[in-house]
Amino acid sequence: MDRTLAADLARLPELLDATRDAAAAALAALDARPVVPGAAAPPPTPPLPEHGSGTEAALAAFAERWAPRLSASAGPRYLGFVTGGATPAALAGDWLTAAHDQNSNSALDGGGQDLERETVTWLRDLFHLSAAHTGTFVSGATMSNTTGLAIAREWLGERLGVSPAEDGAAALGPVRVLSGAPHSSIAKALSVLGLGRAALVPVPTLPGREAVDPAALDRALADAPGRPAVVVANAGTVNTVDFDDLRAIAALRERHDFWLHTDAAFGAFAALSPAHAHLTAGLDASDSICVDLHKWLNVPYDSAVQFTRRRDLQARVFQNAAAYLGPLGDDPDLVHLTPENSHRLRALAAWFTLHAYGREGHREIVERDIACARSLGESLTADPYFTVLAPVRLNVVCFTLADTPTPARLTALREAAGPEVFVTPTTYGGTPALRAAFSNWRTTQADVRRAAQALHTAAKELG
Description:
CATH superfamily of the domain at 100-353: Type I PLP-dependent aspartate aminotransferase-like (Major domain)
Helix content: 40-55%
CATH class of the domain at 100-353: Alpha Beta
Strand order of the largest sheet: 1-7-6-5-4-2-3
Structural class: alpha/beta
Order of helices and strands: HHHHHEHHEHEHEHEEHEHHEEHEEH
Shape: globular
CATH architecture of the domain at 100-353: 3-Layer(aba) Sandwich
Distance between the termini: 64 Å
Largest sheet: 7 strands, mixed
Number of strands: 11
């Protein structure tokens, strides 16, 4: 064994203590650290060491070179990308995920995939889905949407008497994927799946909304009678957290043949709040569902889950034939259900936080974040420097400068406010805008006040 590696092995408990101390110090400093450090050129890359200096030296080098340049994305005023943090239990689970280092894709190896199935069952219950849905963990919403649409692609083949998994996507002929305000990952998924971005058919939304117009969707589906289609519904749009009427969309199946995929990346969590659960009514009728867990479940990046009612088609798409893998069978190993043969035990962090805090603990996080979003919306509405562009329906505030909201001015505003609050750029209704997304378990009303003050000061300085 390499001498330095052997020395680290002999000191492993001590090194893990040092790592714990470094992690604890980083988390303890979240309130005082800049949410996003000022832009700076990266330090010159040194040559790869010929002889390593060990973990302790690596910890010191990281603390000096890179830790100061990382954002405080685990903290309460990082309001970009709908990013949660990691609850204490989720952090513990993630550390143990690395320590146990499981290959959780195969029944030939330990109980990892059984733990994942248990966690998926808990998540299914959390979102009020029926037992008709089965699920698997993936890396994020993009992979969840891709997996769901891959199953939809195979369903189209079933309807047309071909198998894209065997014969290729070209065997389907023209494909239509209809949606009102799809996330950018939908077009990306269609590109990856060989269906093409041009297959995405935009459907008009309701006036002043990002929710699809069910009557317009009905007409669009009628444009190609006799051809099965795919409908991508939204349970929480990016800019304004608008929800399609899932029950009205599902009712269109009485007249049209389509697969219903619902992108509920963070909107699914509305189901935890009794005051907002109506927004997800009809979610269970979906044929496939995307939920991103490193958003509002507050587990570490990267983690998501996908659900479907057609696990048989899922296995047809993703089955993997190799002598060292288990057979497909009626209860397929996870290796047969996603694009990833390599599949870390992501479920453990989710298992920990669900076990530790239960439905009520996570409901409190969701409702507190919703209240914080509404408070920021009210502050910005009352601030003459800003215009709030849409109602705060759930956990996102979409706003812009009241005077000359150019992309350059909004960038300057974001950068000036960056040490105190991080928000992301967007465009809403053709207007350059900003988006503040609340999903972190640490965020309180005090953080809202700091964020509002930072935005006000930055806007005032812009003039």
